Amino acid sequence: MLAQEAARTHQHELIGTEHLLLGLLSEPRGVAYEVLVAHTGSEEDIRDVVDDAMPPAGETTLQGHIAFGADSSVAIEQALRASSDLGHDWVGTEHLLLGLIRTADSPAADSDEPRLHLEGLHDTVATAVTERLATLGR
Predict the structure, then answer these.
(1) Which of 20, 30, 34, 52 is the most buried (most CB within 10 A)?
(2) pTM
(3) What confidence tens digit (pLDDT) does each residue in 71-105 have?
(4) Cβ neighbourhood burial of 1 (10 Å; 0-12, 13-18, 19+)
(5) Whole-angstrom distance, CA of residue 46 vs CA of residue 124
(6) Cα(7)–Cα(18) distance, integer angstroms
(7) Which long-range contacts (CB under 8 A, 24 or more apart) does 20-23 make?
C-alpha cells in the first residue's frame, strides 16, 4: 500500500522498484528501514537517490488500484525466495529489501551512488532479523 501511495504521489501508472523502496522508507518500524538508514546514514539521502532515479511525473493522479510493473513483480518474487532462503515462513520488509537488491533494474541494486551499494546487505539483514526475533523472544 505504501508503494502504491508513492506511485500515486508521483503520478505514475505502475508501481516500480523505486516505489517499493520508498514504501520501505515509509515503514520506520521495519527491519528494511533500520538496515537502510544504518547502512547509508540518512533516510533523506536514500530518498534523494530514489528521486533522482524516478521517471518524470505523469499527467494525472490515478485513483484506485495501481498495478505492479514487471520490475517490481520480479522484486516481489525475489522477496519470496529470500524469505525461503533464510528459512522464514513470512515475508517482511527485510525480504523485500533483499528482493530489490536481487532485481537488476531496481534503484537499490543499480545505483551509481556509493551510499546505496547494497550488495553486502544480505548478512546485515539476516543479522538484524535474528536480533529482532531475539528481542521478541522467538
Answers:
(1) 20
(2) 0.83
(3) 999 999 999 999 998 888 999 999 999 998 888 65
(4) exposed
(5) 17
(6) 9
(7) 20/72, 20/75, 20/76, 20/96, 20/100, 20/106, 21/46, 21/50, 21/100, 21/106, 21/107, 21/108, 22/47, 22/50
C-alpha cell at 37: 538508514
Q: Cα dihedral angle (51, 55, 59, 62), rounded to 10 degrees?
A: -80
For residues 75 and 16, the answer to whether their CB atoms sit within 8 Å is: no
Q: Rounded to the nearest 5°, which phi and psi values hold at 35?
A: -70, -45
Written as one letter, the residue type at 40 is T
d(Cα 126, Cα 124) in Å, to the nearest integer?
5
Q: Which of 3, 109, 99, 101 is nearest to 53 (CA)?
A: 109
Maximum CA extent, the chain: 49
Compute the distance between CA of residue 67 and CA of residue 40 in angstroms, rounded to an integer. Answer: 29
- Specify the DSSP element, H or E, that contains 122: helix 121-135
Cβ pair 59, 102 in contact under 8 A: no
Taking the mean position of all CA atoms in its chain, how far away is CA 117? Answer: 13
